[in-house]
Amino acid sequence: MPSRSKNARDQNLRMTERRNPASKNLDRMTALEIVRLMSRQDHNVAAAVARELPAIAQAVDAIVQRLQSGGRLIYVGAGTSGRIAVLDASECPATFSTPPQQVQAVIAGGRRAIIGPVEGAEDRPHDAVRHLKKIELAPNDALVGIAASGATPYVLGAVKYANRRRALTIGISCNRDSALERAVKIAITPVVGPEVLTGSTRLKAGTAQKMVLNMLSTAAMVRLGHAYDNLMIDHGIANEKLRRRSKQILQQASSRNVSAVEHALRQSKHDLRVALVMLKTGSSAKQARKKLSDSNRNLRKALGE
């Protein structure tokens, strides 16, 4: 039986640092037992994120408002949280053709920290201030601080500076009543419980953080018009797979045959929005561009839908 003092110590630990009783004797389990256990524990993640949906939706609306006014979405994190942030930010230009500066990730330790640890980087809040000054954080920006513990000094330093700059501050953490939760304007706190491997927050906490970032960036971009129905409409054409996808998307959106789609793509110089207006309205490329210009490139308005 664990001693009363040990139980008390465990209760004082943050939830993300506590030992998980379900994974006791983890090192004696077979591979199948380990992955079954991890799978069962991962089922808790979606439920934890679902409980935060009202806060996530509030954050999306606030982010959209900032981006519409010319602001940026800036993620800040350290370690695993920082690398997850870099991943989500780096996917936005490829998925939505956003300018690289519109969604950015600032990670403690800089580029070196993307592929390995940088000693002490997460403990230096003044570095976060320096990094945010370098990118000229502005009042119309939205800053998302990401820290599983909710106590990472680098992230807290970033949030504190962003609050002084009157930027929107959002926090993603996996512990209730954390310093991060108290510091931000909108707190998103999916509590996933102790990890299978104690303290390894790249597991359930990391998965929860990635799910939340998926929602923030995707929902914001859809609300900004970077989708038609449930189809990607602004992705790039950097390789053959993406060129094939462009044709498939236009066929699905317009119900036209591949020959018509290929013609529209050529005439539009591979601008999917222009090509879709051409296909659905019978317009020329020039007319389609005019319709989009008059509607501020809003596809639904340009199509009269």
Question: What structural keywords apply?
Answer:
single chain, 305 residues, alpha/beta, Rossmann fold, Helicase, Ruva Protein, domain 3, 2 domains, 5-stranded parallel beta sheet, two-stranded antiparallel sheet, 7 strands, 53% helix, disordered N terminus
Give a description of the structure.
- This protein has 305 residues and is α/β, with parallel strands linked by helices.
- The chain has two domains: 49-223, 3-Layer(aba) Sandwich (Rossmann fold), CATH 3.40.50; 227-302, Helicase, Ruva Protein, domain 3 (Orthogonal Bundle), CATH 1.10.8.
- The protein is built from 14 helices and seven strands.
- It has helices at 4-12, 31-50, 53-68, 79-96, 112-115, 125-134, 153-164, 179-183, 204-223, 240-254, 258-267, 272-281, 285-294, 299-302, and strands at 73-77, 103-107, 142-146, 168-172, 186-188, 227-228, 231-232.
- The strands form two sheets. The protein has a five-stranded parallel β-sheet, sandwiched between helices. It has a two-stranded antiparallel sheet with strand order 6-7.
- α3 packs across α9, α10 packs across α11 and α12 (272-281) packs across α13.
- It starts with a helix and ends with a helix.
- Residues 1-11 have low confidence and may be disordered.
Task: Spell out the blueprint of helices and strands.
Blueprint: H1 4-12, H2 31-50, H3 53-68, E1 73-77, H4 79-96, E2 103-107, H5 112-115, H6 125-134, E3 142-146, H7 153-164, E4 168-172, H8 179-183, E5 186-188, H9 204-223, E6 227-228, E7 231-232, H10 240-254, H11 258-267, H12 272-281, H13 285-294, H14 299-302
Parallel strand pairs: 1-2, 1-3, 3-4, 4-5
Antiparallel strand pairs: 6-7
Helix pairs in contact: 2-9, 3-9, 4-9, 6-7, 10-11, 10-12, 11-12, 12-13
